[in-house]
Amino acid sequence: MPTPTKGPRLGGGPAHERLMMANLATALFEHGRITTTEAKAKRLRPLAERLITFAKRGDLAARRRVLTVVRDKDVVHVLFTEIGPRYQTRQGGYTRIVKVGPRKGDNAPMAIIELVEPLAEQVVAEATGATKRAAKEKAAAKPAAAAAAAPAADEVEVVAEAAESAPDETVEAVAVEADEAPAAEAAGDEAPADEAATDEAPAEDDKA
């Protein structure tokens, strides 16, 4: 029986190993993380990432290739509709292995293999989109604020025009008063002459 190139043989033979890997991959895609021995986790990782790569392609041929390994159609549907699109911007490295210590009984080294979170680029893209939306809303709010401020600006202009015309009216009023003042003085000068005329009139009557 030939020895595998990627590590020690698991199970009693090649067919048994393929079935074990298929069951582990099905459980991983169904639950997101599983606890198994370190040797099984290391052998499962390349198979799981290859299946996720097929899920990222998303075509019928890729779905049929995955169905030859994972026989549960519900898990394959989740893999193609949720897990695959989640890693569209990530080039490999879809799983993570964390060692958790030996197992009781046979002291076998245990590990947790789990699906990693999507790349931070998605979070950055969402933040960038939110910033762009906020900028658009702010730009849309500026014309409304300008339209609301336009009547106030017109009122200020009207008040400024009134203030500019007020000094001219004051100057005209002063000029009118200045013109009326000599006339009043002239009228005051003529009044004594009339009085003198009235005083001279009785004198002429006495001479007669």
Which spans have pLDDT < 50 for at least 5 consecutive residues? 191-198, 201-208
Mean pLDDT: 77
With helices defined by DSSP (H or I, 4 residues minimum), what is the helix count? 5
Integer-rounded radius of gyration: 51 Å
Q: If classified by CATH, what would the architecture of the largest domain be? A: Alpha-Beta Complex
What proportion of the residues form beta strands (DSSP E)? 5-15%
Count of discrete structural domains: 2
Give the CA-based shape.
elongated
Helix/strand order:
HEHHHEEH
For this structure, what is the CATH homologous superfamily of the largest domain? Ribosomal protein L17
What strand order characterises the main sheet? 1-3-2
**Between the first and last Cα atoms, what is the distance in angstroms?**
176 Å
Which range best describes the helical content: under 10%, 10-25%, 25-40%, 40-55%, 55-70% or over 70%? over 70%
Count of individual beta strands: 3
Structural class: mainly alpha
Largest sheet: 3 strands, antiparallel
What is the CATH topology assignment of the largest domain?
A: 50s Ribosomal Protein L17, Chain: A
Write down the CATH class of the largest domain.
Answer: Alpha Beta
How would you sum up this structure, described in words?
With 208 residues, the protein is mainly α. The chain folds into two domains: 14-118, Ribosomal protein L17 (50s Ribosomal Protein L17, Chain: A); 120-208. It has five helices and three strands; from the N terminus they run αβαααββα. It has helices at residues 14-31, 38-57, 60-67, 73-86, 120-207, and strands spanning 33-37, 95-102, 109-115. It has a three-stranded antiparallel β-sheet with strand order 1-3-2. A hairpin with a 6-residue loop joins strand 2 and strand 3 (109-115). The longest helix has 88 residues, at 120-207.
